[in-house]
Design goal:
mainly alpha, two-stranded antiparallel ribbon, 10 strands
Length: 504
């Protein structure tokens, strides 16, 4: 199958943090599958944790919460420059399902806790879903986020019950969701009514599994963030644990109870469509067809060799699916709003922006008035920056029963804030992240060619010739002896257009 540069660019917008000229050429040369398989075979690049150690951020100055700027530095470093782009992009997608916000980490050096959590997601991003969920469950940062770090067993004398927070969210958000699903992701109905996946009694029974887990070792250096939580048997509930139709007998060891819980949750038929649907939304389109979800769910259930939950196979199925590679680009229901983090990384990668001094200075970009209204690993809650089923009320999307998750952080203020921020970084870079725009400046004498290059790198083949022509005409009004101004204008106008902001 012949791949055009425009198609390659659009594929890379789904599979990576943004196309580069070199990667577009590689996909055109090798084809989608061969390029993707080479990426999937790559070992993980340098971890965030190791980079922070290399930068000597494990000092007393960074021990408390609120001194987390180096976290942004390493996250953006990998988003923009890592060679293992597909793994890194998958880890970010998973971070918006298994959510940890750095400000919720109640242990010393929270930036290392957040960095270690993203490293954990990268480590398991192309492995087994059950191994991923188990690692997430034992992770201290998640234990802080969902308040089960130090969770204590029930005490009939005082009326104390185990913390139920993680027991609820591991089902609701990380595995099976609230309602039973068909393999194609649609809600299963019995006698015309949806069926709930679990009850409050299931939450109470499962909560006992997550008692007794706490920090592993003293907080004397940052390495405790790399260790799974340890089990304190004295605080683990030895009572019977009933949940999801399973009974773990009284007296069962905490490690065995956790293993049994993971077995039961991961075997639930909802996991494939529930997780598969969200990964499709994060990478490809907000409203995939039921047939697309069914195909991905089938790969989750069996990767072709009998293995369940093979995330590498699931990711490959998502990105190579006919619906992803050959969609109807004119269909207004196809695609997804390009979330702000991906807009900035896409600009940096497209135009070769890189750190001038190796520090990758990138402060918190959450501010919605002058920045992105989003910053990695800074979601205020476990429900992410936006919910997967969010629909803007009283809109055409709502009338058509479509979802647009990213619009939950989009309003008049954030739109203006993004344009303000875009104007700054397209003009003069951001902090020490800089680019010369040399290839673009070389084309500035020919506005049509300049805009064509910018469109290719930012939007691929999902951009109309009419809009590109209008932008080229506007760029041509700038004097030819100001080539850099022409480049900035072309980037600004393309990156501000709806045809770019909606990733097709």
């Amino acid at each position: 199958m012949t791949v055009t540069p425009g198609q390659a660019s659009r594929f890379l917008a789904q599979a990576t943090f943004g196309p580069t000229p070199a990667l577009i050429d590689a996909v055109v040369r090798d084809g989608y599958a061969a390029w993707l398989d080479a990426q999937l075979a790559m070992p993980p690049s340098q971890t965030h944790f190791d980079w922070l150690l290399q930068q000597k951020k494990n000092t007393e100055a960074f021990k408390g919460n609120g001194i987390n700027a180096p976290l942004e530095s390493t996250l953006w470093r990998k988003f923009i420059s890592a060679e293992d782009q597909v793994r890194t992009r998958m880890a970010f997608a998973l971070s918006e399902i298994f959510v940890v916000g750095v400000q919720s980490i109640t242990a010393s050096w929270p930036l290392f806790g957040a960095a270690g959590f993203m490293d954990l997601l990268a480590e398991h991003a192309l492995g087994s879903y059950q191994a991923l969920l188990t690692a997430v469950t034992k992770n201290l940062s998640m234990g802080c986020m969902l308040t089960y770090r130090g969770n204590r067993k029930e005490d009939p004398k005082t009326g104390r019950h185990p913390d139920e927070n993680y027991a609820r969210e591991v089902m609701q958000l990380f595995s099976i969701g609230l309602l039973e699903l068909e393999p194609d992701g649609t809600v299963r109905k019995v006698n015309g009514a949806p069926v709930e996946t679990y009850t409050n009694a299931d939450v109470q029974g499962l909560a006992r599994v997550f008692t007794g887990w706490d920090i592993n070792g003293p907080e004397t250096d940052v390495q405790f963030h790399r260790r799974p939580m340890a089990l304190n048997n004295a605080q683990h509930s030895m009572a019977e644990k009933r949940f999801l139709g399973t009974v773990i007998p009284a007296g069962t060891d905490g490690h065995l109870s956790l293993k049994r819980a993971m077995d039961v949750i991961c075997a639930h038929p909802n996991v494939g469509p529930f997780i598969g649907m969200q990964l499709i939304q994060r990478l490809v389109t907000s409203n995939p067809s039921p047939a697309y979800v069914r195909r991905v769910s089938a790969v989750f259930d069996d990767d072709g060799s009998g293995a369940r939950g093979n995330l590498k196979a699931v990711l490959r199925a998502i990105l190579l699916d006919p619906e992803a590679r050959n969609p109807d680009l004119a269909n207004p229901g196809w695609g997804k709003v390009r979330e702000p983090i991906l807009r900035f990384s896409g600009w940096a990668r497209a135009f070769g922006a890189t750190s001038t001094n190796g520090a990758w200075a990138m402060p918190d970009t959450t501010d919605n008035t002058i920045r992105l209204a989003q910053s990695p690993m800074r979601s205020a809650t476990v429900f992410n920056f936006f919910r997967p089923r969010y629909t803007p009320p009283v809109t055409e999307l709502a009338r058509r029963h479509l979802v647009a998750p990213e619009l939950q952080i989009t309003d008049e203020t954030s739109i203006a804030g993004y344009l303000n921020f875009l104007a700054v970084y397209a003009d003069r870079g951001w902090e020490d992240l800089q680019t010369s725009y040399a290839p673009e400046i070389a084309l500035a004498h020919a506005p049509d060619a300049l805009v064509a290059r910018v469109v290719l790198l930012l939007a691929g083949d999902a951009f109309s010739a009419t809009t590109a022509s209008a932008i080229a005409q506007a760029v041509a009004t700038l004097p030819a002896h100001r080539p850099r101004d022409r480049v900035r204008a072309a980037i600004m106008l393309v990156a501000a257009s709806p045809e770019y902001l909606v990733q097709k």
